[in-house]
Amino acid sequence: MTFNPHSETAPTPSLRVLSGPTVQDLLKGQEVQILQHVQAAYEHHQQHDSALPHSLFLRFPEQPRDRIIALPAFLGGGIQRAGIKWIASFPGNHQQGLDRASAVMVLNSPRTGLPEAFLEGSIISMKRTAASAALAAKHLQGHTPQGVALVGCGPINFETLRFLRTVFPDVQQALVYDTLPERAAGFKKQAEELHAGLHVQVAQDLAEVWQSDWVISFATTALDPHVSSLPADLQRATILNVSLRDFTPEVLEHSENIVDDLDHVLRANTSPHLLELKLGHRDFIRGTLAQVTLGEIPARAQENSVVMFSPFGLGILDLAVADLVLTRAETLNLGTLVPDFLPPSGLKG
User: Fold this and answer.
1) Distances (CA, A) of 83 to 16, 119, 218, 254, 322
2) Are 221 and 244 in contact (CB under 8 A)?
């Protein structure tokens, strides 16, 4: 039956529910496709084929580290998805044996507004974050780096390493650092088991991670800046400022700055936001990653400069990866269909 929104007997669309294990299976081995979807999302957004309201932060009295964030978005192009991610970050969960982050996503038809899918969202969020960082490294570094360093040995950097190895398969050296040495040791063990030919060394302090011609990823739970300077002799490094709050404004002031979206990243006391407040302008940002991938600006203004990529984490990226998940789920007929989630169309009273 053809759907007619004006018919009193229009059929009720079903809702597809995709659990965490199903989402994980659907994205396994899909790193190249995820990178392509993330790049397409950035470029559609740069070309104004998207709608991206500001994220909404729900915070709790007397729980400054805890938050739940709503990220609504619409993405056009060949994707044509609307939806929202509702993602919680509770760092104290680790003490209870729980993951810090949890999330769900709802996808809606941009034609009718009706919900089409309900997905576990933390896996999508983690992979789009890591893919965004690796995509930036690929285009900003411009060649295979001497190695990669990862500060913060949690799931985000573990995924970031996976995507960095996708874009730089010849990288053989990695440094990892965490304030909890046992977490860094566990990261090293798992990373070497997963990545054949990769030698992972645990750094004893933060000073060891600064290496010229390396890609350096920060994915921590820091609430306030704790890195106040970079080595004077650091050259042609690409810093992935994933957690956004590790660096003092002065560090960014002396770096080349690329972001995902100016209006989004310059809020919520991120390091770029703090620098904007200090300077009273945003001229220190040279452009967006999409401008680089589209060839509108060069990857580096100066050959040996340090480039800092600060991604706020845009809801369009979640939509892009969720589109890949849902398309594969429909093709493979995976997930649970709920035919009566919505009330029958045309009911009166």
Assistant:
1) 14, 11, 28, 38, 10
2) no
Directed axis angle between helix 315-332 and helix 20-27, to 10°? 90
- Cα 274 from Cα 65, distance rounded (Å): 19
Q: Which of 2, 8, 15 is nearest to 337 (CA)?
A: 15
Distance CA(264)–CA(327), nearest Å, equals 28
* Token code pair at residue 268: 């919520």
- 201-257 residue pLDDT tens: 999 999 999 999 999 999 998 989 999 999 999 999 999 999 999 999 999 999 999
Q: Which residues contact 111 (CB under 8 A, 6 or more apart)?
A: none
Q: Annotate 211-259 with DSSP letters as a single string.
A: -TTEEEEE----SS--B----TT--S-EEEETTS-SB-HHHHHTSEEEE
The predicted-structure confidence for 251-289, as pLDDT tens digits, reads as follows 999 999 999 999 999 999 999 999 999 999 999 999 999
Token pair for residue 51? Answer: 């709608």
Domains of the chain, CATH where assigned: 15-124+315-338 (3.30.1780.10), 142-310 (3.40.50.720)
Q: Which residue in 298, 214, 218 sits closest to 258, CA to CA?
A: 298
Dihedral of alpha carbons 272, 303, 165, 211, sign:
negative
Return the percent helix, strand and coil in the chain, to nearest 5: 35, 25, 40
Sheet holding 199-202, edge to edge: 199-202, 173-177, 147-151, 214-218, 238-241, 307-310, 256-259, 285-288
Query: How many CB atoms are located within 10 Å of the residue 127 CB?
Result: 28
Q: Is the dihedral of CA 85, 88, 89, 95 positive or negative?
A: negative
Q: What is the pTM assigned to this prediction? A: 0.93
Below-70 pLDDT ranges, the chain? 1-12, 346-349
* 168 phi-psi bin (left φ>0, alpha ψ -120 to 50, beta other): beta
